[in-house]
Structure formats: structure tokens, C-alpha cells
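Notes from hallway chat w/ T.B., transcribed later so I don't forget. T.B. wanted the structure written out for a chain they're using in a teaching module, and asked if we could keep both sequence and C-alpha cells in one place. Agreed to drop them here.
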Amino acid sequence: MAIGRLSMLGPTPAELADLKFAYRVVKHAKSNAIVYAKGLATVGIGAGQMSRVDSSRIAAHKAGEAAQAAGLAESLAKGAVVASDAFFPFRDSIDRAVKSGVKYVLQPGGSNRDEDVIAACDEYGMTMVFSGLRLFHH
């Protein structure tokens, strides 16, 4: 796993562990999978959608539902990391993740629009890590 552009602080050891955990989980999800993780636990998963941003919305929604079920005031996505099974073709999933409170993103890279997605992360002060390995499967 290669580190892409880092914020000044970079991920803490706990956040890096969450990124690695989310990467292992997203490997087993199917078709446009997005995994939100925090504290070495999944807090939201979206998969099986025609659109990666729809999977992103579902994962964020599930993190909110889980927080609500636990009686928490804010979504479990706040402070979580996000991993994707394939590259982000557009910045829309990054826009969704930042609204949820995510600061660290893991993806394989390889899109023709990687620079646009990196620019979105830079704009939000998010760190993106590139795995270099596409895990997408149907």
C-alpha cells in the first residue's frame, strides 16, 4: 500500500490500522463497494450498486443508522476512514465522505480522473492512500 498525497499530519497509527482493516473488508464486498471503518470495526458498508456514489451514500447512511440505534448524537462515520474496491471515477464520493466526517481515503487509483479526485481531497484537507490493487468484482 503506497501513501498518496498526505496532509501535514498524516494518519495516526490507529487511523492507518483502520485503513488497512477497511481494505481487508472491502476486498470481500461486491461491485462498487465502499466501507467506512473506525476503531477496527465497520461502521457502514455500501455495495452492489450501479454507481460508486450510491454505495457511498448507503455506507454513510448505514453509519448514521448505527449511531442512532446506539443512541449516539452523531454518525459513526465521523472520524472514520473510507476504502473503495476500485478507483473513484469522480469526486462525488469524496464530497460525500467529507460531509460524513471522513479524513482518510483508501483506493487503488488508476482512473483517468485521479488528479480531479486528488484535488478534491486536497481541497478538503483529506489524505488519500493508494493501494495500487483493484479489488472490484461482481
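Follow-up for T.B.: Strands lie at 2-3, 34-38, 41-46, 81-84, 104-107, 127-130. Might be a good example for the class.
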